[in-house]
Each structure stands twice: as C-alpha cells, then as structure tokens.
Write a structure and sequence with these properties.
This protein has helices at about 50-60, 75-90, 150-160, 165-170, 195-205, 215-220; strands at about 1-10, 20-25, 45, 65-70, 95-100, 110-115, 140-145, 170-175, 210. The longest helix is centred in the middle third of the chain and has 13 residues, at about 75-90. With about 230 residues, it is of the alpha/beta class. α5 (about 195-205) links the parallel β8 (about 170-175) and β9. A 9-stranded mixed sheet has the order 3-1-2-4-5-6-7-8-9, covered by helices on one side. The chain is built from 6 helices and 9 strands. It catalyses: 6-carboxy-5,6,7,8-tetrahydropterin + H(+) = 7-carboxy-7-carbaguanine + NH4(+). Pathway: Purine metabolism; 7-cyano-7-deazaguanine biosynthesis. Homodimer.
Length: about 230
Amino acid sequence: MHLIELYKSVQGESSFAGLPCIFVRLAGCNLRCAWCDSEYTFTGGKPYSADEIVAQIEGFAPCRLIEFTGGEPMLQSRELLPLMERLLAQNYTLMIETSGERPLVDVPKAVHKIVDVKCPGSGSAANSFRMENLEALTKNDEVKFVISHREDYDFARDFIRTHGLHEKAGQILLSPAFSKAPSLLRTTDNATLDPRVLVEWMMADGIDARLSLQIHKFIWEPIKKGV
C-alpha cells in the first residue's frame, strides 16, 4: 500500500471527535474538490507492507481507534480490505473516510464508514457519489456534507430527506467548508461559511443533523499537517 503518513493525534471530525486516534493516510485521489485541504496526498507516498503498517500501529499502543483516510483510501481497496479484517480480528475500532465514489459493499460491516457526499460547491467532484452505496450504509456509519454556501446546504437537506438517510446511517454531519489558504489564526474566520449561519439554517429547517467542525484546525494552526 502507498501511504502519505501514519501518526497518532485526536480525531478531528465525526462522532468520534476528540478521541485519540491513529491516522493511516493513503496516497492518491481521483476527485478534485474545490475546497480540498489534502492536495499533498494526490501523488507520491511510500510503499508499505501490511506487516509494516501493523507494526507501526502497534507502536502507538494503547490507542485502539484507527482511521483510514486519504486521498481516497478505497482506491487501494485490494490491499486495504484484508488489512481491515486483520485489524478487526485484533480488536481495533476502525473508521474509513471516503467519498463514496468507489463501491463500499465489501467494506466490513464493523468498520465505521464516514461517507462524504459531495455538494455542488465541491466543483468537479459534485455528483460523484455512487448511489448504490446507500444500501451499504449501516447504523455504524455517518454521512457528511461539506457546506460552502446556501446551494450546498439546500442540496444536503434535500438529499437527506429524499433518500431517508436517518433510516440508513447512524449520524448525519454538516461541516462548514474551510479556506484552502487559511491564516494562522485558530478561529472560524478561516471557514468559508460562518458556522453560525449554518446553524441558523439547520434550526430554521429543523434538520436532524450534527454540526461538525474540524476541531484539529482550532487546536493547532489550520495549515499544520500530521495532526
């Protein structure tokens, strides 16, 4: 597998936010989101065997929470899925952050999928979600929408309602988009959509979703990597 980085920090998003977590960041992505904050993953990376990855993970004991992210980790599904099965057998709790553009039916049910459905503001990545992946969702899983503006919010609200996401997934996350060139300030000034505005829209519509802020960008300087 080609990895960009492997490190331990705190989980910055999802319902696991704030928990110590081991991040396995895979190289490569086939989408180009307008607001992407991890373009450094698009190329490069170094090859690691499954044994080498597991050895590094075990070096972060006693942490038992692992997130596979990228890039798009499902581009390396042939190697990733057996590794997931191996780690589940060792009683790790696993997460995967994915766009849902690749098939998810073979991801082990015990893995918590965080599926990032791309809104219009993502640019060329919009409409990339593979609709049959809705049937692969379980109550272990979370669906995330990154919101840049009102059009994105309306898209997310309608997608949630049209497809009955509350019946399919355990959590629905709405996350304000973040500037690709943030200042060093650890404030919401770097968000391209004021979180307060997003909350006002959510309250007005009575939408049953969780506001998700990338807390690692408020703990450290938002341009810092490997945190």
